Amino acid sequence: MNTNNKTSTGSLTCIGTGITLAGQITTLSKNYLEEAESVFGILPDKLSEDWVKSLNPSYESLQYLYAEGKSRRQTYQDMTEVVCQAVRDGKKVVLALYGHPGIFACVGHFAIERLIGEGYPAQMLPGVSADACLYADLGFDPGTTGCQAYEATQFLFSGVPLNTSAYTILWQIGLAGEHTLKTFKTTAQNLEASVRILNKWYPLEHEMILYEAPFIPVQKPRIDRFMLKDLPKMDITSISTLVIPPLTGLKLDKNALDEFGLDIKDFG
Ligand SMILES: C[S@@+](CC[C@H](N)C(=O)[O-])C[C@H]1O[C@@H](n2cnc3c(N)ncnc32)[C@H](O)[C@@H]1O
User: Fold this and answer.
1) Which residue minimizes the CA distance to atom 15 of ligand 1?
2) Matching fold, domains 11-124 and 130-244
3) pLDDT in 10s for each residue of the chain, 268 residues
4) Most CB within 10 Å of its CB: which of 136, 226, 246, 256?
5) Ligand 1 pocket check for 130: Cβ under 6 Å
6) Fold adopted by 130-244
7) Which ligand 1 atom is the nearest neighbour of the CA of 242?
């Protein structure tokens, strides 16, 4: 824990509730949740909220701070301030976010940075994220070929090269090209532009996967395989993650092996 000598008793612990309801929270996170004096959360649905409330009745959702037409940048600042104020008021606070609290989720990071700057103890505990679920459900090990991950819009706008020998994970594909930060959906035009950008790296027939891990244990994951050219026709939701399998595997490089005094023959 990052601790400073603040005399107030307030503190913050950011926890992840996992993706699938009730079964993916760690024992440590659950203990913090049950013992908190004040719990705030950004959770995917009412069922998750009711479950968290059953563990700690002080639970308050921060979802009310989102609004169509309001910049998400402002929403995240407002959420951060609500959490920080409760800590300043002397409460032992838990911020419960679905998945991992620090993966593609900025409020926990903002609050921890602000509170530590003000001298309060603040920490983050890891949770089971959407990509942890996808390795299990899609049955691939990111260690086999390597794996790169981007927020979809940041990737699409940045012109960065893709390593096509590795898996690619594009988070928030449901917001692809959404630059205003004020709406919650991508558009057909943005998806067509995404196809043109991805086509710099992959043929139009390359297989892609839309993945959605189940929020409820009895549901099955969504695993829809399709060709790059069909991306605009797919039903993409706010919880869809795009997975792009490698075009080629990793290959041995003669110049790199030379640096180790090795030869391609040494690998049979
Ligand atoms: C704001 S981020 C939250 C990620 C979350 N903190 C985590 O650890 O997985 C939202 C993005 O996470 C991914 N995501 C969220 N829920 C998902 C699910 N059930 N299945 C697959 N991806 C999901 C999607 O890419 C979605 O656009």
Assistant:
1) 239
2) no
3) 444 556 679 999 999 999 999 999 999 999 999 999 999 999 999 999 999 999 999 999 999 999 988 999 999 999 999 999 999 999 999 999 999 999 999 999 999 999 999 999 999 999 999 999 999 999 999 999 999 999 999 999 999 999 999 999 999 999 999 988 887 899 999 999 999 999 999 999 999 999 999 999 999 999 999 999 999 999 999 999 999 999 998 899 999 999 999 999 999 7
4) 246
5) yes
6) 3.30.950
7) 25
What are the residue ranges spanned by the domains of the chain?
11-124, 130-244
Would the CB of 171 count as within 6 Å of ligand 1? yes
Q: Determine the residue of 137, 169, 171 to mutate for testing ligand 1's pocket, defined as the one with the most ligand atoms within 8 A of the Cβ atom.
A: 171
**DSSP annotation string for the chain:** -B----SS--EEEEEE-BSSTTTSS-HHHHHHHHH-SEEEEE-SSHHHHHHHHHH-TT-EE-GGG--TTS-HHHHHHHHHHHHHHHHHTT-EEEEEESB-TTSS--HHHHHHHHHHHTT--EEE-----HHHHHHHHHT--HHHH-EEEEEHHHHHHHTPPP-TTSEEEEETGGGTT--SSS-S---HHHHHHHHHHHTTTS-TT-EEEEEE--SSTTSPPEEEEEEGGGGGGS---TT-EEEE--SS-----HHHHHHTT--GGGG-
**Does residue 76 line the site of ligand 1, with CB under 6 A?**
no
Dist. CA 240 → ligand 1 center (Å): 7
Residue nearest to atom 17 of ligand 1 (CA): 239
Distance 122 CA to ligand 1 centre (A): 24
